[in-house]
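Aim 2, interim progress: modelling of the zinc ion-bound target.
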Amino acid sequence: MSEPTRPLPRADEFDTREFWSGTKLKEFRYQQCDGCNKVIFYPRRHCTGCTTGKLEWKRAAGTGTVYTYSIVRQSYHPFFRNKVPYAVAWIDLDEGPRILTNVTGVADPASDVKIGMKVEVEWEEHEELNIPLFRPVIMGSYMDPPD
Ligand SMILES: [Zn+2]
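Predicted structure of the complex, ligand included:
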């Protein structure tokens, strides 16, 4: 029997396809209104601030902070059942978008994830798109040049 896999979103929907095509390039894209400067995330057709501005696509650096989190200890889904316990967290990216995701790369999510901790994106690779997950920033690690 093959390993259960993560349920994936559709990459071809009108409002979100620009975001998902960015993930394939490991770019975290979000929208910002050219009228009122409000940061929009998740992707939408209209600004939720002024409702009239044009939304521009921007690219986030992929670093942020844990706004809040919860620990999942039980799941009935075959993929997630193999992951428990794991942290589900709202991450505030430095540019403003807030995303619901997982904090990975910790030995014990119940004690190693903290509100306010610095995190950076880590892409879980798939065929059509990549999933943005976040891991703790080891001080100075994102200052190092890429391999
Ligand atoms: Zn606006």
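The chain has three helices and eight strands. The pocket of zinc ion is lined by residues 33, 35-36, 38, 47, 49-50, 53 (CB under 6 Å).
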